[in-house]
Design goal:
Order of helices and strands: HEHEHEHEHHHHHHHEHEHE
Number of strands: 7
Number of helices: 13
Radius of gyration: 21 Å
Structural class: alpha/beta
Strand order of the largest sheet: 3-2-1-4-5-7-6
Helix content: 40-55%
Amino acid sequence: MTSPHAPVLLAEVIEALAPVAGDVIIDATFGAGGYTRAILATGATVIALDRDPTVQPHAEAVANDYPGQFRLVRTPFSGLAEAFADSGEARLDGVVFDIGVSSMQLDQAERGFSFMRDGPLDMRMGDEGETAADIVNGWDHGPMAHIFKLYGDERQSGRVATAILRRRVERPFERTLDLAAVVEKALGGRRGAPIHPATRVFQALRIAVNDELGQLRQGLEAAEAALSPGGRLAVVTFHSLEDRIVKAFLTERTGNAPGGSRHAPVAIETRKPSFNLSFKGAREAGDTERADNPRARSAKLRAAVRTEAAPWGAFEGRVAA
């Protein structure tokens, strides 16, 4: 398989999805088609989703190799249920999500995701909406510091926001390396730190620009609504915020959320679990994959099987510890 993006936990994902000939699977994060190709090789049909217009050449290559088994829909996670409904397929046997930015997006300097490559300060996974430049040049101090702390876990979020506001008075930010230099200076360089000082700020901007956590919640709800009984869900995450959302969703939907206090009784609506866990906890990459693919070091896979119960409705976003 030749691809600019190596799919993480591929064997584990395929085991969780267990696709066979005749199945219909949604790859909600097509990218370069790594998961899709492995699924198609089993004889299953794949409906791939991606809002990134640059994936089109990879989609065309997959369509040529697997005629009649594959289609691409330009939509974010939140459009999953509609994409399946429009497909005309009778049942949905599996959904896979690979959350976060892909290595091929990081490698494209013109996309503005990386603080290691000079490019326009964009960071959009699609081609619409607010850019990272819009945020750092237009947001007030409070909201900017908030996303740096919430999405990037940046302990000096206020200091970074202050440095950005001071510099943008002189001239607006337009390039990635310019922003990275200002962040690094604000944080004192952090010599000897295991990661670049701008890592957390760039991560926070990317998550905010693409509403990644909101899209994840909506995507999980859409998968719950679209999957047929016995359909399988597999989600690969790379950040603790993402993993907590997936864990909380599955904890709730499997009926394992903690109940209320006996000292403060509350009315609890009885609901049947809409998912059963495929395995307990999360699976992680082995030593060999971690050595071969740095992205695999923080990856976690959680999986579940759809029951016959009705969807629970909107996910409240409770976070499991």
